[in-house]
Each structure stands twice: as structure tokens, then as C-alpha cells.
Amino acid sequence: MKFNDDSGFIIRMFHVYKRYASKNALIDINLDISENEFLFITGPTGAGKTTLLKLLYLGEPASEGQILVGGRSLSRISRRQIPFLRRKFGVIFQNYKLIPTKNIFDNIALVAEAVGTKKRLIQKKVKSVLRAVGMEEKLKAFPPGLSGGEQQRVAVARAIAGNPGIILADEPTGSLDAESARIIFDLLKGLHTRGATVIIATHDTELIRRTGGRVVLLEQGRLKMSTIIPKLS
Predict the structure, then answer these.
(1) What is the per-residue pLDDT for 232?
(2) pLDDT tens digit string along 181-223?
(3) Quick one: CA torsion of 60, 26, 52, 101, rounded to 10 degrees?
(4) Which domains does the chain carry?
(5) Average pLDDT score over residue span 126-132
(6) For 27-56, b where at least 16 C-beta lie within 10 A, e where not — what string?
(7) Three-class SS of residue 220?
(8) Which pTM was predicted?
(9) Using CA atoms, how far apart are residues 126 and 120, in angstroms rounded to an integer?
(10) Burial letters for 150-189: b for 16+ Cβ neighbours within 10 Å, e otherwise?
(11) DSSP classification of residue 232
């Protein structure tokens, strides 16, 4: 899915601030993200990583500054248009955010319905994304009966059910064992290979060293560094 502007950047942030009461969560953020980039946003707990992701899909509005997604300013998007913007994104939340009273099929079908998938194609779509993450046999299971790694795989399946161009992942491996973390990360790399822009907020420095790529460092709400980390051989 191509929806970058003529600059070649899919996301641009200009002098962006986010304030909660009198506290600055993000301060003067300037950041360009290219289409099909695999980007890490890192920094200590409380640095502003999750807040930055929320601003991109209008989970919260910026307090000041401008954010462009596909060349379109988020400040000019009406409330009615927000659901259409969010179709461009697949969001993998740190705490999964699966609906505990709905089975895995229904959790993912809700997303497929929201992006306009025809009813006759929803079952095929759900099975397809679950197969991609190795969870097709859990179709009728409920989230509380799954391990953390299984729930995160379902969260990845849900995120890609709408064929988004941008994947936002908030600490996707933070609470997982090493094998589950490897599976989740391999899935994200596969999405990137197939053309998605992948943005991962993480403090997992080992994950970054193993992968390499561009890393943005946040400290106390400020962008302190943007650098390329070579992949470990």
C-alpha cells in the first residue's frame, strides 16, 4: 500500500509537543519516517515512546506542532474521518487489548468488518491471518485461556487483518519468553519484507543489536539521537 507524499516520507513530525496538564510528555519532536522503513523507537520507561505512537494514529491529539501521514495533516482530520485514517495502521499493543469475552475468531473478525471486508470473505480472511501467525487451531479459544506469547501472536494477526501500510508495535516482545519473542519479531520482519512500514517502540537493546537499522532515542520526551545500528553478524 503506497500512500507516502512526494517527499518520499510516509510520516513527518514537525515541532510536535504533547502535554498532560502542566507536564510535557513529548517536547519539540522532529522526525521523518520513510515508506517501508523498519524503525526502532527506544528509551527508558516514561521517555514518551507509547505517547509518540498514539499521536500517529490519533489515539490522542498532539498539543502543538504538525504531523503528516501520507502527506495529510492530522490536525485537519475531522472526528468522522479518524476511523478511515486508522485503517492505514495496524497497532500491536503492549497489553494485547484483546476482548476477553469474545473468541479469537471474533476478535479478528471485528477488525476485518471495520475496514469494510465483505461478510462472505471475513472467515477466509481471519483464517488466513491466523495461519500466518501459527494460531489457526486456536480459532474458537478465548484470550484468557492463551499464554502471553499466543495472545501477542493473535494481536499481530488482528493488526494485519486490515492490510495496513503501517505497523505500530508497542513493546511487542517485552513480557515474552525468548522463543515467543523470536516468533513475534520474525512476523514483524516478514510484514516489513512484504512492504509495510514497521515502527517498534522498545527498550530491548538486544533485539535492536540483533536486527540493526535506524534507531530513534527518546529521553524525557526529547528526541536525543537518530542513528543507524549495524546488524550483528
Answers:
(1) 65
(2) 888 888 888 899 999 999 999 988 878 887 878 999 999 999 9
(3) -50
(4) 35-56+80-229 (3.40.50.300)
(5) 93
(6) bebebebebebbbbbbbeeebbbbbbbbbb
(7) coil
(8) 0.91
(9) 11
(10) bbbbbbbbbbbbbebbbbbbbbbbbebeeebbebbbebbe
(11) P
